[in-house]
Amino acid sequence: MDKWYRLTRHKLTLLLFLIALIAELLYIKSYNVSYYISPDGFLYSNITENFLQGKGLMNTLNFVQGDDGVVRAIAKTRDYVVGPVYPMLLALVYGVFGFKSYGMVILVLHAVLGAGSAVFAYKAGELLFGKGYAWTPYGLTLGYPLFAFWGMYVLTEATFVFSISLFLYLSALYAEEWNRPKIKTLLLLGAAIGISNLVRPFLLLYFPVLGFWILWTQRWRWKIALRDFAIIVMMTAVVMSPWWIRNEIKYHQFISVSNYGSYEFYVGNNPLSITDEYFYFAQPSYDPEVKARIEKLPILEQEKEYKQLGMSYILQHPIQFLQRTLDKEKNLFWQPITHNDGQFYKMQGYTLDKWYLLLGLLGVFLSLIYLRKYSFLLLFTIYYSFIVSMITVVPGARYRLPVMPAMILLGSLVVVIALKGIAKLSSAKRRKGRRA
Predict the structure, then answer these.
(1) What pLDDT digit, counting tens, does each position of 165-180 carry?
(2) Most CB contacts within 10 A, which of 14, 70, 229, 422?
(3) Are 254 and 244 in contact (CB under 8 A)?
(4) Alpha carbon distance, N-terminus to C-terminus of the chain
(5) CA nearest 74: which of 83, 61, 87, 89?
(6) 217 vs 139: CA distance, rounded Å
């Protein structure tokens, strides 16, 4: 009986994946182009090509986009260290279809990852809402147009959303098993955090939040909570340590994931920069003379200087820092796609974005009633929006994308409560009719 049950579950999972994959492919086909690629995409591609040629995960070219919108290769001016997961996935595609097979990256890699994200939404829905309502987050995931749109770019978005969807599913599984969590669940949760960080390092600062959530979930049983937390952290370190060792050997310094981003951090924590405009190249700096001095330094020294300037502002002006971060959340991170942006980027279905945000926001308030069950979604949403808004000045849309799996699960709570209410009313009317 147990074997038959497992077989049935595997068949259902495969069916869910195939349905989601067809939906992803139909969305891709609906666009008039097979892919989009930016300077970042060309950089990832260049790193992948060098890896397949035996040169290692390194770039040999830099790329710039001119005023005419054309991306051009230029001589290498800096060595970019990026998370290794996406270049390795590109290597799988290039190994089969050849170098620069960007269209196949979208059709094969991103479509599969997008379908996998929908399956994890279904499995998380099973744990949170029950089997009868697990279709809700599955359908909402497939229906969210920005997942598919950003999946058309040769960028890390589809991979990062997949890793976050896996992380949220495993968090729901831990919450389900809280009284006797399986070692397997703890190891997988740690591995998911490590892999996600090696795509984009936004969960590096999540551990204090994770530790608090585990302690609260365990009802303040310190011994069990510390054991579970230690196993998760250990597994995360095991997954990430090969990258740390490689960077130490190659660059003679500790690089957790990447070696850039300090300028964006400096701009995001600059008292002169504005908090409702995301084009950071147009942002003012502390002092033109200071900026001119820094730009004459070697790249690694520039990164260090910008990082120190940003940190010193945070430490010296904590209240202003918090106020500016919350302003960036309100004015940028949580703002839905505007009509102009939707038309300019030719996004299909972009008007749905504001309705997804509204549904998720209602779910946030409802989750407070059932806090123990949905607390991991609430904490992750608060953490991610704060961290992204703290680090830099960015718009919603692309940078909000990884938090949307959590918002969709929270929005599903609204839909499920509504469906259950309708079912109860219908049942009450039938009973009243029979009595009559």
Answers:
(1) 999 999 999 999 999 9
(2) 229
(3) yes
(4) 44
(5) 61
(6) 29
- Classify burial at 362, counting beta carbons within 10 Å of its beta carbon; exposed 0-12, middle 13-18, buried 19 or more: middle
pLDDT, residue 7, reads 58
pLDDT at position 70:
85
pLDDT band, very low/low/confident/very high, at 305 (cuts 50, 70, 90): very high
Cβ–Cβ < 8 Å for 95, 52: yes
User: Within 13 Å of residue 260, how many CA atoms lie on the same side as its CB?
Assistant: 9
Residue 76 has a CB neighbour count (10 Å cut-off) of: 13
- Between residues 272 and 352, the one the model is more confident about: 352
Tokens of 53: 């040629």
Q: How far apart are CA 161 and CA 116, in angstroms?
A: 10
Please list, in sequence order, all residues whose beta carbon lies within 8 angstroms of the beta carbon of residue 44, skipping any fewer than 6 positions away: 82, 86, 87, 90, 154, 155, 156
Q: How confident is the model over 359-399, as pLDDT tens digits?
A: 999 999 999 998 888 999 999 999 999 999 999 888 878 89
Q: Which of 247, 227, 360, 374 is nearest to 300 (CA)?
A: 247
Q: Are the C-beta atoms of residues 192 and 74 closer than 8 Å to each other?
A: no
The model scores a pTM over 0.85 = yes
Single-letter amino acid, residue 250: K
